[in-house]
Amino acid sequence: MKPSFNDIFMNLATDLARRSHCVKAQVGAVLTKDTRIISIGYNGPPAGTHNCDEEWPTTGCARDAKGSCSLALHAEENAILYAVKNGANLEGATLYTTLSPCLPCARLIYSAGIKYVLYDKSYAAYKGLPSDEGVDFLNRFGVVAVKMDTGITDL
């Protein structure tokens, strides 16, 4: 049986996460449109700056007030920024990500015109939050954001 595009793209996002230099969490993202890959990304500092796993192998980079990496871009941000930098039209695109979007990433996803988000694991569970604020935000404003294992078919 042929794998679905959802499975193919989520598997790629999972593989990309392994490229991350983050000591705390590895996250990958794939942006697609009409079953074609537009852009990819994984979490980490801006290209050409540093690698956390090399500079701070045991602790990772400094934390901000909310306990998040102070130097890193999220996987979704990296995928979106690269796509925009290269002139891609993201209106109606689908984002596959290994961790559900945080609220700031959700605002970026919505503003970029992305229509669907499929995620593997919960950001809220990872951070110990009561709900997935980013997912709630996206669904409230018309972006379909669902966990991959909900049985959704190809978009």
Tell me what the structure shows.
By secondary structure, this protein is α/β, with parallel strands linked by helices. The chain is 33% helix and 19% strand. The protein has a 5-stranded mixed beta sheet with strand order 2-1-3-4-5, sandwiched between helices. A hairpin with a 2-residue loop joins strand 1 and strand 2. Helix 4 packs parallel to helix 6. The longest helix is centred in the N-terminal third of the chain and has 13 residues. The model has no long low-confidence stretch (mean pLDDT 90).
Question: What pattern of helices and strands is seen along the backbone?
Answer: HEEHHEHEHHE
Percentage beta strand: 15-25%
The total count of helices amounts to 6
Cα separation of the termini: 18 Å
Mean pLDDT: 90
Q: Cα-atom Rg, whole angstroms?
A: 15 Å
Adjacency order of strands in the biggest sheet: 2-1-3-4-5
Poorly predicted tracts of residues: none
- Largest sheet geometry: 5 strands, mixed
Helix amount, in percent? 25-40%
Say how many strands there are: 5
- Give the overall shape: globular
Give the structural class: alpha/beta
Domain CMP/dCMP-type deaminase: 4-136
Pfam families: dCMP_cyt_deam_1
Organism: Mucilaginibacter gynuensis
Cofactor: Zn(2+)
